[in-house]
Amino acid sequence: ADEALQAEFDARIAANQRVEPRDWMPEAYRRTLVRQVSQHAHSEIIGMQPEGDWIASAPSLRRKAILLAKVQDEAGHGLYLYAAAETLGVDRDDLTERLIEGRQKYSSIFNYPSLSYADVGVIGWLVDGAAICNQVPLCRTSFGPYARAMVRICKEESFHQRQGYELLMRMMEGTEGQRRMVQDAVDRWWWPSLMMFGPPDAESPNTQQSMTWGIKIDTNDDLRQRFVDMTVPQAERLGVTLPDPDLVWNAERGHHDFGTPDWDELKQVIKGDGPKNAERVSRRRAAHEKGAWVREAATAYARKQQEATV
Ligand code: 3HC
């Protein structure tokens, strides 16, 4: 019977049909999805911290309102993704425990400090720009709930990228000091944004299997290349230089050649030794502990409601 179920699953994947929670799926497929979707959700929630630090210091009411909306969107992205993960039989409280205890990962990019207000623009432009490159293909990922969450997230992601780029355009039309702030932020966030796409394909243990299952549509290196090609003209229009002396258009390839990211740095950051890992996780733990009373109150209220209907 399992062979028939496996054959039906393989046919579904081969036909680019969606796998839904009630469909039979190989245990390894389910486990890979729990790993990727929950880590994606953790990334959205932790990702609120670098920009959240600047909400109180935004230079105008308009900028504060835009930044508030963007950070709130990230919380919503996390909730869409935890909901998608729960259709695989996991519980978001348990996933939060795994994050807080360092047993699950979140994106390396959020372990870097946001040192000036220009970082808010560069995070929107580069980090959300990289997220768009990575997430648009995931709208076609084989697991239904994940793909549908991606469609909603990508719509909001384009607002995130545009608001960041527009902020930088304004600053580049400002004073010399503002232009220097933007260039400094670009210098600090460029290479970590390239590392966000993951290790090189030759050192990516999950890519092959994830592509066979239609979970991953493109390889890490292909998406990284797509991001570089998309971003170079934007940097030129903005008037900033990207901090890579090897970055050059290669007419033969029809792509930009670029330098090699520091893969040891990525390993360090993924291991937990990045500049801000400890702070990001301890703030997430503190928020979870401070919110315990809300969960207890909601549970007590739900129990009372249930008793009232019995
Ligand atoms: N940060 C942290 N861990 C990373 C990483 C990164 N940038 N890149 C790779 N890893 C981890 C992987 O999770 C894997 O570890 P695991 O097996 O314990 O999970 C290991 O390094 C090997 O990497 P692989 O390439 O083999 O792993 P994957 O096939 O899972 O590819 C990925 C990694 C490309 C991040 C893929 O999981 C993915 O596409 N995930 C969904 C997208 C996502 O998570 N984006 C993160 C940013 S969230 C965001 O952009 C918010 C936006 O609104 C700003």
Structural description of this entry:
One of its GO terms (biological process) is phenylacetate catabolic process. Its EC number is 1.14.13.149. GO terms for molecular function: phenylacetyl-CoA 1,2-epoxidase activity. Keywords: Oxidoreductase. The chain has 310 residues and is mainly α. Helix content is 68%, strand content 2%. The protein has 13 helices and 2 strands. Strands 1-2 form a two-stranded antiparallel ribbon. Strand 1 and strand 2 form a beta hairpin. Helix 2 (27-46) runs antiparallel to helix 4 (61-86) and helix 6 (118-138) runs antiparallel to helix 10 (220-238). The protein is globular and about 70 Å long. The site of 3-hydroxybutanoyl-coenzyme A has 29 residues, from helix 2, helix 4, helix 6 and helix 9.
List the SSEs and their pairings.
Layout: H1 2-14, H2 27-46, H3 48-52, H4 61-86, H5 92-100, H6 118-138, H7 144-172, H8 176-195, H9 207-212, H10 220-238, E1 248-250, E2 255-257, H11 263-273, H12 277-290, H13 292-309
Antiparallel strand pairs: 1-2
Bound molecules: 3-hydroxybutanoyl-coenzyme A (3HC).
3-hydroxybutanoyl-coenzyme A binds at residues 35-36, 39-40, 43-44, 47, 74, 77, 105, 107-108, 127-128, 131, 134, 195-199, 204-207, 210, 216, 220, 270.
GO biological process, one term: phenylacetate catabolic process
GO molecular function, one term: phenylacetyl-CoA 1,2-epoxidase activity
InterPro entries: Aromatic_CoA_ox/epox, Ferritin-like, Ferritin-like_SF, PaaA, PaaA_PaaC
